[in-house]
Structures are given as C-alpha cells and as structure tokens.
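worker-03 picked up job from queue 'complexes'. Input manifest follows; two sequence lines, order preserved.
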Amino acid sequence: MFDQYLIRKDSLENVTKGERIVGFKFAVRIADYRGCFLSLHNGYYITCDGVEYPVSKQKFEINGKAPRSFEEIKTCVWEHWNYDDEGYVYVEQEGGLSSGTHVIGLQQSILAQYGYMPWDEEWVKNPPVPGKGSGSGKTGTICTFELVLQK
Amino acid sequence: MGIKRGVSLYSYQQTQFFGKMNWKDMIREVHDNLHTDGIEIIDEAIIKDYPFPSEQFYFDWNNEMARYGMMAVTMDIYLDVHQFRYHVMTHAEAAERLKNDIKIAARMGFENVRCLCLVPTEVIEMAIPTAEKYNVKIGKEIHFPLPIKPGQKQNVKDPIMDPRMVDQIIELTQKTGTKHVGLVPDFGIFQHSPTDLAIDYFKRHYNPEMIDFILEQGEDKNTDEVIKLLDEKYPGHGLNAMTLGAILIKESCAKPEDIKDIVPYIVSIHGKFYHMTEVAGMPGQYEDKAIDYATPIKYLKECGFNGYINSEFEGQRYCQDAGEDKLINEIEQVRRHHEMLSRLIGK
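worker-03 finished. Artifact:
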C-alpha cells in the first residue's frame, strides 16, 4: 500500500554531527491504513545507489523524541505511531551522500497482525529481517525512489 | 426502521494519508452528501494517541458527532500479538487489550466494537463482563474467505481461519446468555468474481499473458488444477495461493441465503466494495460487478434487519502503484455505493 508515497520526495538530507556529515535521513509514512504500537516497528530494508544498509545502521525519529535505534524501538510497547504522522529514518554513512539524485530501495517492516499466527514464537526468537519477505505488512515489494539530496 | 446506511472511515484512508481530509471532514461528508448518520472507525487510524487518547480528543469527538447528530455505530479494533516483542501476547493480555478498547469505544459513544476473525473465542469470553458493564457489543467479523455455515466448498482455503467461527460465536452467546456478543458480516463473503482493479494490478506486476492464462484456465478448472498448469507453463511464477484465489474466484465463500439464519446476531455489517461502476443503460446507478449486494439485502429486509450497513471501500490499494493520476477517488466511490445502497434498501 502507498508504495510510491512512503518516502516524502523532498525529504532526503545529509545528517551532520558537529562539523561532520555522519549519514543521511528521509521522511516516511506507515505503509498501512492504521498506525501501530511503536514496538512493532522492526526497521527497514534500505539500499542507496545499490549499497545495502542493515537495521543496525538505522535509527527512527518519531513522536518528538531523538532518533532511536530499532533495539530501543522494540521496547516502546506503550508508545504509538499515529497514522497521520511522518517519521524520519536516519542511516549511518560517514560522509553522507553526494549532491544530486540517489536511488533508494525501501521496504518497511512492521509486525502488525490480525491475531495469532503459526509463526508467532519464531518471530519472538528470530524477528524477520526486513527485505526478506516476512513481516513486511501491507507493502510486500521493495519500492524504489529517485530522490534529490536537499542539503 | 429498516436497514440503515453508514460509512466506515476506512473508506477514506488514502484521502487521510494525503492529508486532504481529517475525521471531521469525513463526518461532514457523510452528513452533508450521503444524508445519513452511521459512522464506523478504525481505532488506530482515527484516535490520536491510541490507546491513551486525551480528554480533549474524547470531547472533540463527541462534540463533533453531536454537532451533526451522528451515530457512532462500530469501532474496528485489532490484535497485534507481538506488541511486547519478547513474548507472544497471552490470551489474558489479549483480553486486556480488548477490554481497554471497549472502554475507549464507550467513551466515544460507539454501540459496538468489531473484533477480528482470528481473536480466540476464549479472549472474547473474558471480555464479556466489560462489554456488559459498558454496554458495548463485541461483533466478530465474518470476513472472506469464511463461510457463514461450515461445509460449503471453499474456493480459497485459509489455513488459519476456522470455518466454524459463526457457530462458535452463537454457542458462546447461548452458553453465557450474553446479549453483548454477535457478528459483523463483511460483504466480501459475497464476492463472486475478481474485481477489475485487482486484475489490472496483477497485470502491472506480473506477466500480463500469464494473468490472462490463469483467467482462461480458471473458467472450467478448479484452483488446484490451475496451479498445476501454471507451475508447468510458468515455473517460478511467484504467485501464492491467496493471490491466485483473488484472481480465480468464481463463487462467493458464503451463500447469500445463509445470512437469514444469523440476523439476530448481527451487530452491524461491513459494506465491503472494490469498484463502483455505472450500471449499463442506467445513468446515475452504480454497482460493484464483483460482489452480490442485491440478494443478501433482499434477505436482510425479509428478516427485518434494522441495523447499519457501513460502506467499506477497499479498491484504492490496487491503484496506488500506478502514478498519481491513477489514484481512485474514494469520496466519489462511497457516494456511488450509497446510491446503490439507498436503491436496494428502498429509501
């Protein structure tokens, strides 16, 4: 769902820490028709210009709080990502991105369900790896975006 | 009295996503342009800061509903069993979520909550005292591919949903004597053919000749036979059984006449639809070519059903991959659905 609209087109920016560029970020929406308990958000499959960035290199900013790792997000069991709200995905990349257009591949993983499923215990022990198929919610494909770096 | 019309705000999910309408705009649309009062919501789409909405949200909601004289019919609620991530939610925990949802629904004036097909009967039973205390009915959804009565030949066999679900709910009401548990049939159970929007979607994402091959073979063969031929002709085709089921559907998973037997248990109905198009030769009249509305509504009228059918538009997701000019207009689709509902209900 909302395949072409999951990333806001004019949102790709480099991220600085002091004087250093330490990565890039872009704004996303939830690929569903409802929000979710934040703990269910299991990260992204992300490629940028063919380079894959695993969940360990990602952080997520939502609800006016500083960007959090997905290990921390996993513990936010009473916090909610409202359907109307935009979040920012931060990706670690020393030096950031060059100016110009970049091709981003994206699949969101949210472990939303409609009840009990045969794989429930397995998902506790081994949560799905984003991009590998399971746990991709309502957008089962990897979506591609051509984005121009804003700053 | 008689059947009443309403709208699940689910129908406007795309318009909401793009920030073009909020829930107040949707309520006004139902009131001003559909000339009716029934409102259904998806809790996690509408309630800001669910599951702990502010006092201001409750007041704002109830105020807006009062302003237009609307009826809060049903709140659709969910069961995400991985909320706690380090353990699968137990049935007792699932019942706690259900009970909290009932309390939220009550404060927003809803008569019913819709719980999902896969919520265990035991979980519903644990929440009955709360449902009774707050006077909110729990309606379990009869969703595709479930039948109303078990034993019907199923075009799509769901490996998880129990085809005896309706009987289990009726047994629960008999065992406990509660008046606060019932059913929410979804008109998707009366879908008898694939929707054109889904066929177009699959043709954009898979080899279009392969989709035509499936449709041709499906005319006189069952799903298993088609899968066998498909595997031979297009090895590694990448279509799963559920997708094939959506393409190959030839008869509805529930018989329209079976609805007569469950009318006393219906708390409200989901008017699922995919694509309203003009009826040939009848300008201004619309139909969903894939779903039988006329027959079930005829039976509902015969049986004196006087609850709500709430429009639940779901065709938008098949058009979101094809460019902004291809996005479908949800507002227009719901208006067309209400032309049809008004005509079939007879008012």
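worker-03 released lock.
Chain B touches chain A at residues 10, 13-14, 16-19, 22, 42-46, 48-52, 78-88, 116-120, 159-160, 205, 317, 320-321, 323 (CB under 8 Å).
The two ends of chain B are 11 Å apart (CA to CA).
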